[in-house]
Amino acid sequence: MPQRGTAGPRTALARGLAVVAAALAGFGLVTAGTGAAQPGAASAPGTAAAVAACGSDGFCDGFEDQTGSAPGGRWQVSYPNCQGSGTAVVDTSTAHAGSRSIRITGTAGYCNHVFVGTALSTASKVHYGRFYVRHSTPLPSAHVTFLAMRDTSNSRDLRMGGQNQALQWNRESDDATLPEQSPNGVALSRPLPVNTWTCVEFVVDGNQGQLRTWVNGAEVAGLVVDGVPTQDVDGQWLRGATWRPALTDFRLGWESYGNGDDTLWFDDVAVSSTRIGC
Q: Which residues are CB-neighbours of 235 under 8 A, at least 6 positions away?
């Protein structure tokens, strides 16, 4: 191993890649980050390893290339069902890193659903996702969604959001929830904090029909589908037909199916076939 002050070929290459990554971060092509990578994760966002994670099988976006108040580029705004009072705008007053984020003004009601979305690569059926979210209101008791992905295996959405004031997944095709909405199941999930940025990670493995979720680098026990039914966790999820999701898009926003208003921000979004880390 080269001693301090002696740069071997690998060290020089690593430093060179780090310089490139830092330059890309300055242009908003990758997200700058300072935290250490979690076990099993790629290096922290903004490092040379994270640049590779933003390759042809995924993307990284800190919204720094947005030039107006309406999301553009890879992102398209949609209003499922009908357009109401929900809005999605580029915000220059609040950001996790850099100077821009996406602000969602989410309001309750069927017509007020709003999302910003982009296509996913279908080259792999394994999708690791990472985004930072900042809620201004605690997750409500009623069912809400802030991430939706189209699953072409059943022509419905795979949804992440909340219910009973805790983080949950919901499968639109049969309304199965993860965890099960029993007191024990909900206790195995967790609420999301307000007025602070939270790192949310997940993996959806369409080959194995598995799903895992991390919040600020820590796995959430109630948000795991591992192929073996666990009471109060994924027993309902694994009941019935075999689940092999095929995801084609990625949408951030707000859907409320009962009560539930929230203003929330998203930033430093990444999707890859390998884990990216916070």
A: 180, 229
Residues 6+ apart with CB under 8 A from 87: 104, 105, 114
Amino acid 56: pLDDT: 67
The answer to whether 134 touches 264, Cβ cutoff 8 Å, is yes
146 phi/psi in degrees, rounded to 5? -125, -5
As a whole number of angstroms, the distance between CA 97 and CA 267 comes to 8
H helix intervals, the chain = 9-26, 48-53, 183-187
Chain segment 175-188, per-residue pLDDT in tens: 999 999 999 999 99
User: pTM for this structure?
Assistant: 0.81
Rounded Cα–Cα distance for residues 221 and 237 (Å): 15
Average the pLDDT over each of 22-31, 103-112, 189-198, 265-274 and give the range with the smallest value.
22-31
Q: What's the token pair of residue 276?
A: 């990216």
Distances (CA, A) of 204 to 60, 125, 178, 258, 271: 17, 8, 13, 27, 11
